[in-house]
Amino acid sequence: MSDQRVQIFDTTLRDGEQAPGASMTISEKLRIAHQLARLKVDIIEAGFPISSPGQFEAVQRIAQEVDGPVVAALARTTDKDIDAAGEALLTGSNTRIHTFVATSDIHLAAKFGDDRYGRTMAEKRDNILKMTDRSVRQARAITPNVEFSAEDAGRTETDFLVQVIDVAIEAGATTINIPDTTGYCVPREYSKLFTDVLSRCRRAHDIVLSTHCHDDLGLAVANSLAAVLAGARQIECTINGIGERAGNASLEEVVMALNVRRQHFGAATGIHTPLLTETSRMVSIATGFAVPPNKAIVGGNAFSHEAGIHQHGVLRSRETYEIMRAEDVGQHAESIRLGRHSGRHGLFSRLDKIGVFVPEERKGEVYRQFVRLADRKKEIFDEDLVNLVQEVKGRSSADHYRLDHLHVASGTGRLPRAEVLVHHVSTDSTTRVTADGDGPVDAIYKAIDQATGSHHDLISYGIRSMGEGADAVGEVTVLIGENGALFRGVARNIDVLKASAQAYVKALNQLAAFRIGRLNTEFVSDGIMQSFEGDAV
């Protein structure tokens, strides 16, 4: 029997953006929407049109400009919400209205407490059924693709949930979402909701059942996958798992779980997985939310190994400790991380990778000195190996570039623009460049790249506050790469844009020093040998 197709409903631009501090500009949303189309998600929930003019415009432009996925707009079960969603989607050719209403007694008491919705819980429930019927029929008159969500279904009494879903299907809903809105459910009880609906609702097999899980108990992915086993054929999720409170089910995690354990789930998606890491970084930069290094699938350490026994096993066969290929999710296959737990195999594999030859008779001494350095540093990067050679030879790793001027302009209705003045130390010359970007940091980095003429990969960008309050110092960490070699820059400043630029230039200086070292292989290898003949570094 062939695998069942599971649709991926991405709500990064709607529920994901509702995470405090994650708001994005319209241009950022468009860029991410185009990326989601390349990723081959099935549905993009572009926003909540009634909530603001900016939300309306974002939905309108995505519907008009992004080809491929269905573009959905969210609406409550009110006439004005449905009308706004329909108007925003008007220019799109492949659209969906997603309407929702609360169904749990907890939500009805809090959100529909006014007597106009009924004096008793039974009267309030009756009103919910009428609102469901009216809104779905109104949406269906606009588009044949209508989704209905029973908000807080996870805490809704099952008999009433079945009633609501029956009404929504009869009114014309083509997708029924059973959300765990508060992240309260555990996998067994959440999957039972789906089996109950499939067995008790009159036409449940005529529509698509959807999951929408929040991560308050850390179970969003597990609950989503349990629902798939119970018959769900759509998963609502976000890139990096961003969203309200603790976030939503992570798109990259549910997709790769279905891929890696395909025989177990008997289900597959149409996602182009090599773009997962690139998409993750794009969302991280747009929202300012750093991806934790231990994040599954897309985190910096997801395919990294520091322990010597792990490194030895992975270097012989990656399947020893890895259940998927790094390149299948857009990560780098070479991911030996050097630190105090690393062994000889990891060290010399890395030296070979960056073009540093060490004769067999010198490897023992090289490793002993490496261990001493590793005891003083949490992690050793490629530039540490290059700088070790240069410093012992009496040659400093002087800066190759210096940022002399930075100006950033940003505002409503315009692309952020950055102007930089970069000093080239080797030629004692300066280059002034202006560049636009999808965000202020993107504009800065594009301008610096043009000014330096450097071509490389931006691996990760992270920012954290070093204190509290509006004047807290921000620390920015940038990781860039070239042909598998990694270079890091760290900077602190009250102005996070300045810190972002300074960290980037520091990383570029490390990369420039590495390039010069590789141009002279004899110097590098000879330097490694001589560096251990004098005092230890």
Features:
537 residues, eight-stranded parallel barrel
Structural class, judged by helices and strands?
Answer: alpha/beta
Average pLDDT, to the nearest integer?
84
Q: What percentage of residues falls in helices of 4 or more residues?
A: 40-55%
The quaternary state of the protein chains shown equals: single chain
User: End-to-end distance, in Å?
Assistant: 62 Å
Low-confidence stretches: 305-315, 388-397, 519-537
What is the CA-based Rg, rounded?
Answer: 27 Å
Shape: globular
So how many helices?
18
Tell me about the largest β-sheet.
8 strands, parallel, barrel
Report the strand count.
16
Percent range for β-strand residues? 15-25%
Write structural notes for this entry:
The structure is a single chain. This protein is 41% helix and 20% strand. With 537 residues, the protein is α/β, with parallel strands linked by helices. It has an 8-stranded parallel barrel with strand order 2-3-4-5-6-7-8-9, surrounded by 9 helices. The chain has a 3-stranded antiparallel beta sheet with strand order 11-12-13. A hairpin with a 2-residue loop joins strand 15 and strand 16 (485-493). Helix 16 runs parallel beside helix 17. The protein starts with a strand and ends in a 7-residue tail after the last helix. The relative contact order is 0.08. Mean pLDDT is 84; it is low at 305-315, 388-397 and 519-537.
